[in-house]
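Now read these lines:
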Amino acid sequence: MINDSQHDIVQSNEIIELLETPEAQLFLNKHKNERPENLALTYSGKVNFDLPKLTQILHLYQKAQHKLPDWVINRCAFNSKSYAQSSHWELANFKSSLFGGKNLLDLTSGLGVDATYFAKSFEQVFALEHDLETHQFATYNQQKLQVDNIRFVHTDLESFKYEESYDMIYLDPDRRPEDTRILGDFESYSPNIVEGHSKWLKHTNCLVIKLSPMVDLTVLHRTFQNIHSIYVIGYRNEVKEVLIHLTNDVIETTKHVSIHITKSQVWRYSGESITPKPSPSKHESILLEPSKPLIKSGLSHSYCKEMGLSPIKPLGFYYINSQQIENFDGRQFKIIEQIDASIKDVKKLLKKRGIKAIDIAQRHYFDDVRTIRNKLKIKEGGNLFLHFTTDDKGKSLCLLTERI
């Protein structure tokens, strides 16, 4: 099995040279769906190019075919690090629809995925990258992707000479400097966005920064005083990134926006954070859970109120209703049975219905999913769910449901 870290052993010029070799190109096309480790054994000593390096490239292409399909189809060059730090193409494409103008400065362009899609909505994109190998990948890929309005620049932020102004400055800071895993602690990002944002705002009135999905939005509000908007962007019910739009204007109320990209559509909602009243009824037929982008953005309660829904408990994220909601941004379940959440009672329920495997979920409950599963001693699987929660009185509840 090929480890991802092995890809970075191959230098950028070696990868590019290999991708330009006709025999290697034919080999990639012919064996694109085969296991790289098997190819390394089968064709060892039988080809006139560096087979181990090409199988490393093939391994990465197979991994990237959903995240960066155009980069794979066009046989672009990248390694595991530049790939891991790049945006998913669907998220990058959607972000390009949020902003537009004459010129954009991308301070941390990396492989250039965001820059490539922003090039659709800006006349000119200047894309900076301090790592030489990643910069070489980006410039090589620009020719492959035939995007001619991006200027890739190899430089560090301290040396770069800014123009007077830009319609937008964008950056995706490194959230794992020196291979540490800081994620939600944006004060440790590289470059330092807390110290740097005031300097960057001297050159634009639209500064957009990509943050970890784990970032605390309340801390953002305490740290930055001029947030125009916060975008929580999710993909298939998983929060992938948070964007903050900073400006020089005086902002009285920051706009929160939930964006949920699914296979079939893009859900977008903005509103105000509210405290809902719990539902007086506990025996409805449908259980609803808003999407994770709605919950992360703090907009789930106002969204569900517009849908005529009430939570089981105040500030809770499980809602109940008498019928299914059409076009609901989230998950819906048909309630089969509701009981007390004692392990003894739940085991009786499972035995009575002959359930040998089941999915488990919880909200506002004192045990996590792993602990609940260990107590029940039941396998994961099947088409049914057990939802554990508490009501507005603090009573524990368990709902046996089926996903709609």
